[in-house]
Fold this protein.
Amino acid sequence: MALLKTVASILILSVTALAGSPDFVFMRSSLAKKAGFTVHQFNTQLLSAQKRDLEQYEPQEHACPMDLKVKAHNIFDHLLEASSLKHNYAMLNITPALVVLCDEGNKIGLGDGAGTRHDVTEVAEGLLNYLSTEENIAAVLAHEIAHSTRFHFDRLELRLDLGNVEQEADTVSLSILRNAGYSPEIALTALKKIEPALGPASQQIVPRIVSLQKQLQHL
């Protein structure tokens, strides 16, 4: 019986791995196990969370200026194609989504200007305008997509050990940016642009800047 379970587990993992990256499959399975769910139950929860989040943000999304929405969504979609996220979530019938918070015009800091809930990425209008260039916006959105690829929000909700999630997302974002045809160095450029606007809170991203500088030296 134990042998049959082992063989079945290997077959399931092999088939799933064909549809998505093995790392994604491993993390999703591990999270489900730690949460006391089957993988199917965990996937169902994730889909329900996405629908709930999108319903919450829908009025704000519709209120956004069209040109700002188009600019942000085009960059976001391009980055998704360059990451494994879109393909991996397709297995779960989930579409990663971007929501532009157009009533948050004064929010610039990364802590409240951009964030990721499950697979829904939100970014404030004020942050987009402050970043101004396509490269800076791409760097911030790639960082948020990286959070989703590593299940950071879900791990937070499950009260699992996160480690330094911001630096981990920075590292993953470098690959996403490079795959999308951007220079990985724009991740550092965007952080340096945001740093002065944070005031005293800027000390929170100094370690990230130092870490990115070291990583970029070896690329």
